[in-house]
Fold each of these.
Amino acid sequence: MIINDIADRILRGVETVQDGVNEALFEPVIRLGVTGLSRAGKTVFITSLVANLLDRGRMPQLGGSAAITAAYLQPQPDDTVARFDYEAHLAALTAPDPHWPQSTRAVSELRLSFKVQPTGLLGAISGPRTVHLDIVDYPGEWLLDLGLMDKSYADWSVQALADAQARDEGAAFLEALGCVDAGAPHSEPDAKALAEPFTAYLNAARAAGYSDCTPGRFLLPGEMAGSPVLTFAPLPEGNAPRGSLRREFERRFEAYKREVVRPFFRDHFAKIDRQIVLVDALGAIHAGPKAVEDLRRTMADILSAFRPGRVGRLFALLGQKKVERILFAATKADHIHHSQHARLTAIMEALVREARDRADYSGAATSAMSIAALRATVEETRDHGGQTLDLVRGRVADGQGGSKQAAFYAGELPQDPAHILAPARQGATAWLGDEYGVMQFLPAQMTLRPHEGPPHIRLDRAAEFLIGDKL
Ligand SMILES: Nc1nc2c(ncn2[C@@H]2O[C@H](COP(=O)(O)OP(=O)(O)O)[C@@H](O)[C@H]2O)c(=O)[nH]1
Ligand SMILES: [Mg+2]
């Protein structure tokens, strides 16, 4: 263990020195983390961002883009991380019958390189320089796991059981809990009899719109499915004699932190310079006040993962870059008419402000925006019983394998974000008055002109915030 650690540090040390030299002297590297819970829109975001950085005709707000003379894909620096399958995802979105890309559930990476012609005095004396953008896609579920690092099994159990009690989806797991004596000697069937309903509960809670469903790897197990490190559950306080189920679960919880959370931190999270967190805020609003309240809590958890002091304390040995900018972006803004965008942004801003306060966060610059990585709708205004309604129209599945056009009114977001956030905090179970809908649009058919990427909403502003200063 210790020898491993030292070897690890030496390796990283070497790497860091090299990185440092490369960056200072030759070619700066920006590592952009893209995260969000599953289905938040990471894959679509990266695909459209890359397409729009390669062909910059739709990126007027990316200030530095004027200086970019060329952009191209290159082999990524990390040989053991999956490559983000950009070509396949773009082909899905731009096919004659476009469809959303397949969902992916692990880390992937892509390197985009720019030739940038410096302007002004520097431009006159130096040639173009190269800037690398390494985009790293990782599940938000893993990010939330970082919060487990400073929790003991007992602390985590208290919180996890309270969550299960507060959510309807927790009932079956709590019932199973009543049937097992955790102080009795551990047997694997007993362990499974708890871990299985617990995992099912986490998945159901996630599907119902709850954001905080740790441990995240229970939702996205990959090749660890069925292993002991994913076969445990929270237990109420009680005696834990040697060899008991409680003792074994505690041990597995510690193994989860050591074998799952820590490597993620070291190999991916610690190297990020800039971060975008994609949030399906419209989806949470649609799911109801409890989901919004959960999102509010989760955003504070996410920010505290980036808190410099905290990470320093826990992982001082592992080396951590300072994240300089974090953007919280409400995705899928093409589901609502642009007259509502400012309101959606205001809700995101309120959430971020609260998260900063709650997490007592001072560090990276943070910002909030509403974006659509891929615009799938057009806007339309219709008369409806003497009232004008601002709608969006797009392709939806017709239920027979084909598609048809449908217009949709999502409901009106309140001018004052408090009208969403306050009832959520006060434990309301449904919105008063307006209900908010979400529709599943398919990507629109598109014909791209030369030098233009796919249509989007404010993707250029997002890019400007994240990397504009480095171009
Ligand atoms: N209308 C619209 N839908 C989107 C957009 N981005 C994502 N989606 C929807 O969200 C789903 C999940 O997106 P994906 O990028 O796969 O999410 P990931 O799990 O975070 O990688 C897609 O299949 C689309 O249905 C967008 O910009 N506009
Ligand atoms: Mg994905």
Amino acid sequence: MSFETNGSATHDRTRVFVTGSCEGSATLCQALAHQPDLELVGVAEHVHEATGALAGGHLQVVLHATSDATLPSDELAVIREHTRAPIIVLASGEASQLMEQALEEDVADVLLLPQMPENVFFAIRKASHSGRRSLGATVPSASHGRIVTVFSPKGGTGKTVITTNLATALAKHEGKRTLLLDLDLQFGDAAIMLGLEPEKTIYDLVVAPGELDSEKLAGYVTRHTSGLEILPAPLRPEDAELVTEAKIGALLEVARQSYDVIMVDTSPFFHGPMLATLDQTDELLLVCSLDVPTIKNVRLSLQTLELLSFPMRKVRLVLNRSNSKVGMKEGEVETALERKVRFQIPSDRAVPLAVNRGNPVVLADAGSDFAKALRDVAKAVANPEPERQARRRRFFAKA
Ligand SMILES: Nc1ncnc2c1ncn2[C@@H]1O[C@H](COP(=O)(O)OP(=O)(O)OP(=O)(O)O)[C@@H](O)[C@H]1O
Ligand SMILES: [Mg+2]
């Protein structure tokens, strides 16, 4: 169901989305679509059809219509998963129980239809104002999602296993709105490790006409059961060429507005899109292993990063398969690289088992050593140390 909205300028208009239906809701939507102070972003009878718009639509109010006599808690929970905009419940018929329940829930208002459209407009504006105030208090800046890039100059060191598990843990266990961006543009396999077969990839997004904004981005991501969203690598290696440095720069800026954390998986090269990513990276997880050629290349990468003026304080050394008995100890890696290992991740049989099943280890085998280590990394990424504290830690680690 869709309605033509009026054509006036969109700024300063309250952005509203309507989900569900009840007696009188269709008439009300017609009235909303022609109200100059409101922008009716869309209407969806079933909440599940609207998740993209709810997440990326910069909504100020969501109206949810129900003909049930009780509060539709499951549907409200789905809306809450995707947006923090205030929710007004529209009901028809006997609703005294629903109203009672609404007092206990995170609902801005309940309106019984039919209503004079002016009453509904007023309730929307009131909810939008209070929503803005409370969002301002709890979310200091909506546009400051952190970009965490996972890199290693050697193939097969565990970048994708670490990125997919970390991103899943951030979404599922740390409650962060998380996007996984697969920048291994030619041979990315993050989606497959998550057991997903996405219809759209980063290629479709960058070749689509029109300006990129959060709403458009939301239409191209694929959602995993953990809540994590992913923008996968192109399906064909030759399509990677069109994913340019400029496109990645713009994409990351937009993604910061919709997500708390953007996890970037990479290939072992410093190509254009990687340089654009480094420009915006807040934390670089540099993956190393107990293996002489990898250590040599990680050392070269650190030198390249310095030449690129990438701030070394943003680099975290991750030692994957840290417990492998290969005649080398963590201390030797630290000496060779002249920096401390920040995270150790053990070698674990649970990893290949989970990879082959397309299910991240943090979900498939939450008690495994690998999952526990990844949960710790997720906690640290979700709660970054204040800069002063991090400086102290680095100073004493060197001493
Ligand atoms: N800690 C670990 N324990 C056991 N197996 C692991 C571990 N880390 C990685 N692996 C295995 O190593 C394989 C390669 O890992 P992964 O694909 O994540 O590497 P990569 O760095 O992304 O490689 P590429 O550069 O080819 O993309 C995986 O299939 C996984 O099974
Ligand atoms: Mg990989």
